[in-house]
């Protein structure tokens, strides 16, 4: 792989310390337990979890309420999948 490795943890929320706009603009895909997921808000490879929105529920600040799912997390650049 010629690109730098993807970070262990990444979030799409701009308020998160794990947010990286430059990396997200390249297009990141997530394989979770072998299936590609398109609704991942945050992931952590070393701890083996992803966070996904719980339907349309929102917290008092207007952000989606997230569920933590544990399993095998494999991030990839979407350009590499083709």
Q: Number of folding domains?
A: 1
Low-pLDDT segments, ≥5 res:
none
Q: How many helices in DSSP terms?
A: 2
Number of E-state strands? 7
Helix content range:
10-25%
Silhouette:
globular
Strand line-up in the sheet with most strands = 1-4-5-6
Radius of gyration: 13 Å
Strand content: over 45%
**End-to-end distance, in Å?**
14 Å
Biggest sheet descriptor: 4 strands, antiparallel
The average pLDDT score comes to 90
Order of helices and strands: EHEEEEEEH
Structural class: mainly beta
Protein name: DUF3297 family protein
Pfam family, one: DUF3297
Short descriptors:
82 residues; mainly beta; four-stranded antiparallel β-sheet; 7 strands; 46% strand; globular
Describe, in plain words, how this protein is organized in 3D:
This is DUF3297 family protein. The protein is mainly beta. The chain has one domain (1-57, 72-81). The chain is 11% helix and 46% strand. The protein is built from two helices and seven strands, in the order E-H-E-E-E-E-E-E-H. It has helices at 21-25, 78-81, and strands at 9-11, 28-32, 35-37, 40-44, 49-58, 64-70, 73-77. The strands form two sheets. It has a four-stranded antiparallel sheet, with no helix packed on it. The chain has a three-stranded antiparallel sheet with strand order 3-2-7. A hairpin with a 2-residue loop joins strand 2 (28-32) and strand 3. The longest helix is centred in the first third of the chain and has 5 residues, at 21-25. The protein is globular. The relative contact order is 0.26. The mean pLDDT is 90.
């Amino acid at each position: 792989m010629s690109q730098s490795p993807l970070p262990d943890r990444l979030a799409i929320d701009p308020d998160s310390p794990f947010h990286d706009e430059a990396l997200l603009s390249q297009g990141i895909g997530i394989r979770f337990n072998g299936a590609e997921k398109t609704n991942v808000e945050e992931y952590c490879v070393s701890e083996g979890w992803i966070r996904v929105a719980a339907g349309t529920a929102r917290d008092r600040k207007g952000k989606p309420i997230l569920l933590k799912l544990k399993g095998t997390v494999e991030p990839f650049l979407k350009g590499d999948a083709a």
